Amino acid sequence: MRVSLAVQRKEKQVKAKKPAKTVFVCQGCGYQAPKWMGKCPDCSQWNSLVEERRHLAPAPSSVQGLPGVQARPVPIDTVEMNQARRIATGIQEFDRVLGGGLVPGSLVLIGGDPGIGKSTIMLQVLHRLASHGHKVLYVSGEESVQQIKLRSDRLGTASDGLWVVSEISLEAIRAMADQMAPDVIVIDSIQTIVTPELTSAPGSVSQVREATMHLMFLAKRTDIAIFLVGHVTKEGAIAGPRLLEHMVDTVLYFEGGHSNLFRILRAVKNRFGSTNEIGVFEMKDRGLCEILNPSSVFLSERSCLVPGSVVTASIEGSRPILLEIQSLVAASGFGTPRRTVLGVDYNRVSILVAVMEKRLGLQLMGQDIFVNVAGGVKVDEPAVDLGVISAIASSLYDKPVKERTVVLGEIGLTGEVRGISQIEARVHEARKMGIERCLLPSDNLKHLKRPDGMELVGLRSVAEVVDLLF
Question: In the CATH hierarchy, which fold is given to the domain comprising 86-292?
Fold first, then answer.
């Protein structure tokens, strides 16, 4: 009897331990598999599956600190609102991307290539907030305190209200937040934060998700605004920003290569403002300087009497921006002509070239075509179709477009010029920049008030464009 009781006791102890389960997790997309595979079946990346050990039952601490759990549903009109206002950072372009300022208790993710300026803009934002009396904390897992001070002296962001610490432990960061009670916290970067509850390596999918979940609970419970800095490779698929977009309130991405003078901060997701809003900055030795009038900057180096250059207008969030579309058409020396596109969708340009061949009778099959948006801006709306066609036609005929002309409109497969949205804002921005002539769809011309000193020309088909451009 004693032997049987000892065996039962031992079996209970074994069951209580709940042995760990081994899984293989893709570090690119988070796909899980019971065994190792050379290629991830979800994102098609090679050698991206890493072995991780997980407990069969979820850790109890993973749900601790969950804020605002209601015992029962309540009518929405009876919910008491927090009257806290947005926190203005003092950088207008940054506040514009956030939707008017920083919301207390929000979780903001800032992604971008390494070295593009994420840490720089964070130090500048914290310096502005500390100058206005806010207590801010900068947590770095990649640099020491001395290195942060060295970079802060170069940027001129030293302030007594800006607290810095070098730490990678999630529990230590939570303890510091509860003790200091800052208004804003920056985590640079989220890939370096680890928790001992998981045995996986720092930067893995499990570590990044667990750390972000705890930080999200901390932000909602204490009304501390938290910035998460995440690195993105050129594929944009490493463990980090792409896996956390659904967990955070706002997602901001830096655009523009290291060789590009301008940095564009774009809001991909924003629960408290408009999406696809952009802020334009210029990288200088003193950090990122905001550009309040991007249209004048993007058109400052444009040569008016050069073939292949056309001015168009794009809506980025709530802001109209004038852009220069450049094109170069040259005879191809190979059997297959080249099509190189920068800043515009490649498939869209291929469709427009086919429309020009079919509807205008142009011979472009034996021509190399290069299209570029000056300034490193990426445009994804069809309102610039007419500008792309005009630039290609100008380079093909080797004739410059008439001076101070802007071209707006979407092109259909049958060659018709279709109406576009927010035409009043585009025309008004063009008039402020000294544009005197605007080619636009006829449907938009019917309901548009003609501005003083500006000629508006309505178009119905792409065949009318060539006659009016030159």
Answer: Rossmann fold (3.40.50)
Which two structure tokens, joined as six digits, stand for 88? 């203005």
Beta partners for 159?
none
Amino acid in the structure at residue 254: F
Please state the domain extents for the chain: 17-58, 86-292, 296-469
How far apart are the C-alpha atoms of 225 and 215, rounded to whole Å?
10
Q: DSSP secondary-structure letter at 190?
A: G
DSSP summary character for residue 108 = E
Domains 86-292 and 296-469 agree in fold: no
Segment 325-379, tens digit of pLDDT: 999 999 988 888 999 999 999 999 999 999 999 999 898 988 999 999 988 888 9
User: What is this structure's pTM?
Assistant: 0.78
The tokens describing 164, both together, are 């810095």
CATH number of 296-469: 3.30.230.10
- Distance CA(284)–CA(281), nearest Å, equals 9
Q: Is 409 left (phi over 0), alpha (psi -120 to 50) or beta?
A: left
Grouping H, G, I as helix, E, B as strand and the rest as coil, residue 374 is coil
Give tens-digit pLDDT for 163-192.
Answer: 999 999 999 999 999 999 999 999 998 989
- Looking up tokens 């209200």 gives 161
